[in-house]
């Protein structure tokens, strides 16, 4: 059964339609990659799934429950089940690495500090930052900040992790350290939706890949099919351009 | 140059001058606190308010930022009595400096309010922070950090600005220097000592503020 389901979801920024009848489902433990040109709506799907953007029509179901975007309680449920990692990390600059990871579980979910701290330290060790607990974000490299952001997301114990072009702001040498972290999560069975321009990585890690253009899912299938034998001209065009580089 | 320095005549006045410096600090501190109160309210109105209240604040700021402080205090001290309002010279100076500071601090703080980072606000929202938690954990720490250096600067400027009080006969540091000068006629000695006291006082304030900023907000130390 699908853990996450989008059914004919459409959304707009003002008059600009950015999602146009999206159909997408993600099974528990599955990793789905979203690829496509800029402005095709990849990141917008993630904004809908975190309650930052309310769809105009269509429905979003998580674990069988339909989310009513007008009900604050439903938005809270959605945010409890998902965690997002942003392209620009969006860490709290005035808090240390450890505090960044701990603040939401303690202040929002009311969990015990000692318990959260042990978990946060574990997570930060896992992403290779055990020696940076007391550092501030501006003292870290981009790759390190991005791994803090991943740890912050994981500390919420999400069922679904959403990654929004998490390597786009990093220089090439730092990309691999972030990708290694994500690989490990996939191996542990985390349900993930990954937006990325790292085609090699998407191909390797995704169970299925959705190619998007103009707010629609143009083609959805196994990575080998999308990259090697796409059905649609639009997909072939995009993949062809990218692989030529 | 055949001027003979005679500091001996002026040294005995040192405690008298230092008491004057203390009064200067007092005026600066009180006017700054008053100005902060006005500035915070007005900056909030300018950022979040609308309609009439915003126009009123704009008029106040434009008027006080674009007229000399000296003229503002002259108005309070010499013009208001014509309308039947009498202020002591000390009160006129304090009120004038407070109103002037209020206008400048409104602009400084408005810039701070507007610099809140959208990316962090979004992260806070997604993590489930309430509106109040967003203000407490994201907006305030950021705004305080951004505003600390320009506010410190303005405070130092105000400390030096208190010398204007001498013109109205307030016996702060400069006023007392005038007094000694008219008794001894040792202008060079008197005003060089007064200059050194001003440097000393503002340096101490700068270092104290910089240290506070370093520990409270991790701002870069830069005194001179």
How would you characterize the overall build of this protein?
- The complex is a heterodimer of chains A (245) and B (224).
- Chain A has 245 residues and is of the alpha/beta class.
- Chain A contains nine helices and ten strands.
- Chain A has helices at 42-49, 72-81, 97-108, 113-126, 142-154, 172-187, 199-205, 223-228, 233-244, and strands at 2-13, 16-27, 31-35, 57-62, 65-66, 82-85, 160-164, 191-195, 208-213, 216-221.
- In chain A, helix 3 (97-108) packs across helix 4 (113-126) and helix 3 (97-108) packs parallel to helix 5 (142-154).
- The longest helix of chain A has 16 residues, at 172-187.
- The relative contact order of chain A is 0.17.
- The longest helix of chain B is centred in the N-terminal third of the chain and has 35 residues, at 14-48.
- Chain B has helices at 14-48, 51-65, 69-79, 89-114, 118-126, 131-161, 173-184, 187-217.
- Chain B has a single domain (12-217), classed as MetI-like fold (Orthogonal Bundle), CATH 1.10.3720.
- In chain B, helix 1 packs across helix 8 (187-217).
- The A-B interface holds A 50-52, 76, 79-80, 83-84, 86, 88, 90-95, 103-104, 107-109, 136, 152, 156 and B 117, 119-120, 122-129, 133, 137-138, 141-142, 145, 217-218.
- Chain B: It comes from Puniceibacterium antarcticum.
Computed structural class of chain A = alpha/beta
Number of helices of chain B: 8
Report the radius of gyration of chain B as a whole number of Å: 21 Å
What is the count of DSSP helices of chain A, taking H or I runs of 4+ residues? Answer: 9
Reported by name, the CATH topology of chain B is MetI-like fold
The CATH class of chain B is identified as Mainly Alpha
What value does the average pLDDT of chain A take? 92
Helix-residue proportion of chain A: 40-55%
Along the chain, the helix and strand elements of chain B come as: HHHHHHHH
GO molecular function, one term (chain B): transmembrane transporter activity
Protein name (chain B): ABC transmembrane type-1 domain-containing protein
Subcellular location (chain B): Cell inner membrane; Cell membrane
Function (chain B): Part of the binding-protein-dependent transport system for glutamine; probably responsible for the translocation of the substrate across the membrane.
